[in-house]
Amino acid sequence: MSTKKGRKAEDVAARYLQRHGYEILDRNARGGRGELDIVARLEEILAFVEVKAHKHRDSSLEAVHANKCERLRSAALAWLAKHPKHATLQCRFDLIILTPRRGIVCLPKLEHLKDIFR
User: Fold this and answer.
1) Which of 25, 56, 73, 113 has the fewest Cβ atoms nearer than 10 Å?
2) pTM here?
């Protein structure tokens, strides 16, 4: 995400991951044919986390289409090539969806979907 709103969403997602024991290894990592919003480690799992902040949950899900998944795979492979010490970890692709809460002017609803594609 390149907008101010996107950066805020990524900040919220990174704080959530840290609170849940993940170590943030990288953010907005460009490589291959894409960009990884967050690269995080939890014990022996390396999570490539895509962050989506849309008005509706369904639009966030639709934004992670086949072409987007291919770009994420390409970026993940490029990241692993630059960081070979992490290549032995179990890798997965996660999605964090942030949607606004109706009538509440506070933090959005956060949903963490793990291992969303292979």
Assistant:
1) 56
2) 0.92
